[in-house]
Specification:
CATH class of the largest domain: Mainly Beta
Distance between the termini: 41 Å
Helix content: 10-25%
Radius of gyration: 18 Å
Number of domains: 2
Strand order of the largest sheet: 1-8-7-4-5
Structural class: mainly beta
């Protein structure tokens, strides 16, 4: 599971997120908004505007499908919600706190991994739905845990769970989406590697497409009933 390029997410004058599809294939985006799953299809080389007016950080699973409907790429991304009308004396949504060059310690049940440093952490805050504190590694990968300090007193984030398929599964202990190789503190040759992440992503993609198709069917049925 790789990180979705942050440059493919921008914002319009109303601070609504604009998701871009740089591929020559269809892009399917799945995310949760107001406790409900949402599915967005973006045509090749096109973009869509999302009306996510509720302030917050949202993570999504992006699946690129070829003309035969086969998943050829899977990524995890994020965008911010909190649109507003840019009238007089109206301020835009406040930015989330960010910290550069932060050590990260992954501590899962029964396994502790060697710390590593990420270029940036975006602090989303306490998560009322899943509990604990949520941050975005490099502004993209969602993790939950707690702020701690290193032995030298430096700010550090301790990861307790992550999310492989935002919008589909719940946070849990597992490989971090992105180019993060977790090495067990007691055995540097063990742990999650890039190949592990690829295998998990490939297996999960089938479930992703099935759930997306089911969701699209339900949505189309609702629209059909509304029109009739």
């Amino acid at each position: 599971m790789r990180q979705w390029d942050r440059n493919w997410v921008r914002y319009d004058d109303y601070y609504r997120p604009v998701l871009c599809n740089p591929y020559h294939d269809t892009l399917r985006v799945v995310y949760i908004y107001q406790y409900r799953p949402r599915i967005v299809l973006i045509p090749p080389l096109a973009s869509v505007v999302l009306d996510t007016l509720a302030y917050g950080a949202y993570n999504f699973t992006a699946v690129v499908s070829d003309t035969f409907g086969t998943a050829v790429d899977v990524g995890v991304g994020s965008f911010l919600g909190g649109g507003y009308y840019p009238g007089p004396d109206l301020a835009p949504p406040p930015p989330l706190p960010t910290y550069d060059d932060v050590p990260v310690a992954v501590n899962y049940p029964g396994a502790t991994y060697e710390p590593f440093t990420v270029g940036q952490i975006v602090d989303v805050g306490d998560d009322a739905q899943y509990g604990e504190h949520k941050v975005l590694l490099d502004g993209v990968t969602p993790v939950w845990g707690a702020w701690t300090q290193t032995a030298g007193g430096q700010r550090q984030f301790e990861v307790h769970k992550t999310q492989q398929l935002p919008g589909i599964d719940d946070p849990q202990a597992g490989p971090l989406p992105g180019n993060y190789q977790l090495r067990l503190a007691s055995n540097p040759s063990s742990g999650f590697t890039s190949r592990d992440v690829f295998v998990i992503a490939a297996d999960a993609t089938v479930g992703t497409l099935a759930l997306c198709a089911a969701g699209a069917f339900v949505i189309s049925r609702r629209r059909s009933r509304t029109l009739h």
